[in-house]
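Bit of a strange request maybe. I'm writing a small parser for structure token strings and I need a real example to test against, not something I typed by hand. Could someone generate the tokens for this chain?
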Amino acid sequence: MTQTQTRTRTQDQAQPQPQAEPQSLPLRLHHHAWITDDQEANRRFYEDVIGLPLVATWTEREVLFGAERVYSHALYGLADGSALAFFQFADPEHQEEFKTEINATPLRHIAFKVEAATQEAIRERVIAAGDAGDAGSTKADAHVIDHGFCVSLYITDPNGLILEFAVDHPDVEKIDAERRATAHADLARWLAGDHISNNRWR
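Reply from user aminoacidic:
Good idea to test on real output. This should exercise your parser:
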């Protein structure tokens, strides 16, 4: 590829791209699914400690991937109507089949937007559960990181799923507008080798 072609491609990538029309975007997260080995311990963690209400428990028996499966999935609701869903199979062999091992990394997580008071209340309940010796306690894993544009509480649930509870910066609307305006140019710049940070709020 010639230098001119490279420059043209980079320039093209940096040009503002058309944004999807609101009606063509997904409306919201419907649910995020995970596997649990213990539905009741999981319920105590999510409902009693985190504060997400159990909104549905589906108990199923169906042919799935060539075999009859007996399983439950419990859903815990968020304020916008979305949910976290957790599956458990009655047959231990089926449980092992679907419970795949994933290399642990703090960058693989699910994040929730919360207010500061909600974040602190969750942190306090997690610490209290750890002090009480509750099953699935995550006291040792609970930590807060200031990302500049948000402050996040991280904890790990009894199933190894990392949860982030993020409180947005007071100027979140201004920050969002700035990042949206330069999103494609920022990506093109980074891909071209310019790795200077653009997070001036950290």
